């Protein structure tokens, strides 16, 4: 697939992904159910890894160098409800940045497939 055909390129590349991730974490850290999971976490590193991760999911020319999803969320006891809220905030952040329906759904499908790695570990 050439870069011109990737979701990453279509939605506006690095700038777009950075805006999405920034809005996404604003929503996550504002939610009293979710905020405690992130206590004491290096937010700058989290943000940088999330930009890489979403870029890679969207087919961008970016290497993700964080932990794999099971490892990153191990021992946190993340519930299905928490996961669904996080996925909803990602959806809202994508829409708020003008990502169209088809690309939003494609990204959410990829992310939704990670649920068994993230929940209940
Ligand atoms: C919706 C799917 C999710 C994706 C795609 C995702 C993605 C990521 C990524 C890429 C990292 C960075 C890993 C690293 O720095 O090595 C991370 C870390 C983290 N995630 Fe998630 N995550 C998801 C859901 C959740 C949920 C539902 C929670 C909790 C409610 C959560 C809490 C955390 C925390 C606390 C960290 C920091 C771990 C650390 O630095 O020790 N994540 N996540």
Structure explained in plain terms:
With 121 residues, this protein is mainly alpha-helical. Helix content is 61%, strand content 0%. It has a single domain, classed as Globin-like (Orthogonal Bundle). It contains seven helices and no strands. Helix 2 crosses helix 3. Residues 34, 37-38, 41, 45-46, 49-50, 53, 66-67, 72-73, 78, 82-83, 86-87, 111, 114, 118 line the site of protoporphyrin IX containing FE.
At a glance:
By secondary structure, this protein is mostly helical.
Number of helices: 7
Counted beta strands: 0
How much beta, percentage-wise?
under 5%
Q: N-to-C SSE series?
A: HHHHHHH
Mean pLDDT: 95
CATH class: Mainly Alpha
Helix content: 55-70%
CATH fold-level assignment: Globin-like
User: Over all CA atoms, what is the radius of gyration?
Assistant: 14 Å
Bound molecules: protoporphyrin IX containing FE
Helices and strands in order:
Layout lengths: L6 H5 L1 H17 L13 H15 L11 H4 L7 H17 L4 H12 L2 H4 L3
The structure holds protoporphyrin IX containing FE.
